[in-house]
Amino acid sequence: MNTNTDAVLAELDRAFPAAEARLVEWLRIPSVSAQPAHAADCRRAGEWVLAQLTALGFTGSLRETAGHPVVVAHHPGPGTAAGPHLLFYGHYDVQPPDPLELWHSPPFEPTIVEGPNGPRVVARGAVDDKGQVMMWLEALRAWHATTGGIPVRCTVLVEGEEEIGSPSLDPFLAANAAELKADVAVISDTGMWDVNTPALSTRLRGLVYTQIDLTCANRDLHSGMYGGLALNPLNLLTRILGGLHDDNGVVQVPGFYEGIIDPSPAQKAEWNSLGFNEAQFLGEIGLTRGIGEGNRGALERLWSRPTADLNGVWGGYTGDGSKTVIASQAHAKLSFRLVPGQDPDKVVAGLRQFLADRLPEDAKVEVQVFGASPGIEIPADSRFVQEARAALAAEYGRPAVLIGCGGSIPVVESMRRLLGLDSLLMGFGLTDDQVHSPNEKFDLTCFRHGARSHARLLGRLAGG
Amino acid sequence: MNTNTDAVLAELDRAFPAAEARLVEWLRIPSVSAQPAHAADCRRAGEWVLAQLTALGFTGSLRETAGHPVVVAHHPGPGTAAGPHLLFYGHYDVQPPDPLELWHSPPFEPTIVEGPNGPRVVARGAVDDKGQVMMWLEALRAWHATTGGIPVRCTVLVEGEEEIGSPSLDPFLAANAAELKADVAVISDTGMWDVNTPALSTRLRGLVYTQIDLTCANRDLHSGMYGGLALNPLNLLTRILGGLHDDNGVVQVPGFYEGIIDPSPAQKAEWNSLGFNEAQFLGEIGLTRGIGEGNRGALERLWSRPTADLNGVWGGYTGDGSKTVIASQAHAKLSFRLVPGQDPDKVVAGLRQFLADRLPEDAKVEVQVFGASPGIEIPADSRFVQEARAALAAEYGRPAVLIGCGGSIPVVESMRRLLGLDSLLMGFGLTDDQVHSPNEKFDLTCFRHGARSHARLLGRLAGG
User: Fold this and answer.
1) pLDDT, block means (10 residues), chain A with 464 residues
2) What residues make up the domain containing B347?
3) B318/A312 Cβ within 8 A
4) Is residue A14 within 8 Å of residue A146, measured between CB atoms?
5) Could you say which of A139, A358, B143, B441 has the lowest number of CB atoms within 10 Å?
6) CATH value at residue B450
């Protein structure tokens, strides 16, 4: 099979200008999912990718949803039972390009510009996610061109609502779970460590998002008439939530740290060796020092430690000047980033307990929960992670690092919950790609090495 | 002079129906200062009171301001140097009557209704402040009718912007300080303890009102990307302001309690003897227990202890649902009710110190001060308080109580600051008068005894 892989890589290099042209063609379609005026463009972008797959022998269609359609296509692979069944995931929709005046070239007229890493394509969706989808699509195409087939069984799912929160995805996965069943989900929507260092994302933080509503008196009060006798919900809110952390930054919600799966010492050592520049990272946002547990490295805190952050607070008078009011109510949005091992439901229960323990007789509290998803860890010793690491090492001449992500990628949680699938997060974005911002770009070197890495992975999984 | 006073009281009783008719006439003028459409009515209400004073031998005029005119009138009294010089203060403007549909009779068609204390007049301005002004005006009229003159030297100042925050008053007092100089300001805009118990208000709380703006990062951040490393200003705001009080409710601002003049044990005993029903007071607003220092009575806490109350907090995402943002800024409106002896400037300085002591390196704080006025105590042993107590005791057959007020009355502070005058706060309102609400009323028994009390006071000050 190595022979095949070598031929596939040669084909990829030979046909790279054509691959670049195909990416540019797809980028010209302004598939902005948030804007109803672009609904037809979204469908066109889905049809475009479906046509690419059909040309490679896939059988598929646009599947209707309450919103934009989902592209689903299947290829049986070589027909042997040996290899795994892959589910490739991506999205054909893009963010709105606003503000337009900050773009140096029109967002839907892809432009090749020279950058520090060589040529790059500048367009909305260049890396998020059309460029990343095109890498595995070009890898499949090169296999098809070289061997006349696809080396493993594949299902492809490309949705059109990722940039608006994927409202139709969970219902679609649930309704088509049997059809979409595979051995692993391959998702290209993440990043490299840097342009020379490939990465797999194996840890994602989860999220519990709540709203806390405190009520004291049955109406707003005059602070002259009642101040000093009447319980003030804003004083109470700050008092209770001001105690969310102790002096060392440890979250005081009962049971909060229970079950946390710490990264292995080897994993921590790998993170610490990455040379993450915390001072520069914080300096860019006007800060000089990180918060959190000082005995843990910055990446360890970001990728493997949970948080409790107020995302909003409000209550009482918030206009200009003064109003001597004691409010009846106070409100807060409070969210927790969770790490693998924490149980989101237990965190919610712990929060309720934390509040109840501190609530005086005359106050009422309500807690709304807007979301509760666990942190996710993809086992480093899984077959797919190991094969991907080897493929990346072969392509880049250096080991791929296993990194984390401080946020969550909802599709990863959905794949696990609804299809029982782990995800392989092999992405080729760089931190300066301007994702969701004007002048979004994708370095062509990332595009080329990414496609080659996917081709190598397919070869290995096919039994190379 | 006692002979004169007795005759004056007889005249007041004889002419009471006419006094009632005059009050009704004044109440028919819809002098709503907040509404430009009523500007002419405001002027007419001022002219009306000026005409009443002129008929008693006063010399005066309407004085123009940036807003509604001020009525100023002078009477030399009997021309001897013996008696004091009084400055009567009141206001001819009224609150808007809305919501109109909740009135049982039209707000500017005064109606006599029978109530638990006998007949009452229902109209906007009945007690606030036309009824209260008419009490001293009727007392002066009865003196004039009985003796042909006014027994002490008087200046009268009736403004037309009290209900909109008296924007022209301070400039007017400052510009006319020499003309308005007197020995005491007599202000009838406060209340009795109950319908049978006269009261003088001798303690008012002051107010320091601030806005606190905290800034951490130079822009809003994604909580997935930065949570656990970046300082969160909302977490910080609750942490700092949650420590504003200790577990016993003691305010932690440095020097906050310095200089406080405690009421005398006799004064506290008087307050405790008033039978204030804290449970009922709080029950009406849905609370069951008062906050604050448990070893002090409710009235003592309300009238003689300072507070620190958040009047508003805001920052971050406050809309529906969730947004995983770490805000750049957090804000709070924080005010302090001050008691006599506290220095407002020192409280502001203490607040700045309190914040600075708790501010981490990466946070910036700005403090805006929207007002800083001291608590005011009118000495119980002053001649005017003593004479007023005696007048009230004679009229009601029971001692007048010296009460406090949890709020501030800005004109009292202005009189002290700009004219160097203490105020005598002798008022005859009741707690059920519906001030600023639909169906505002004034009990005629309060009106009659109030006018008689003023007549007695004039007699005593004239040397009775």
Assistant:
1) 85 98 98 96 98 98 97 92 90 93 96 97 97 98 96 97 93 98 95 96 95 96 92 98 94 98 93 93 95 90 96 95 93 97 97 98 97 92 96 96 92 95 97 92 98 97 82
2) 206-264+303-373
3) yes
4) no
5) A358
6) 3.40.630.10
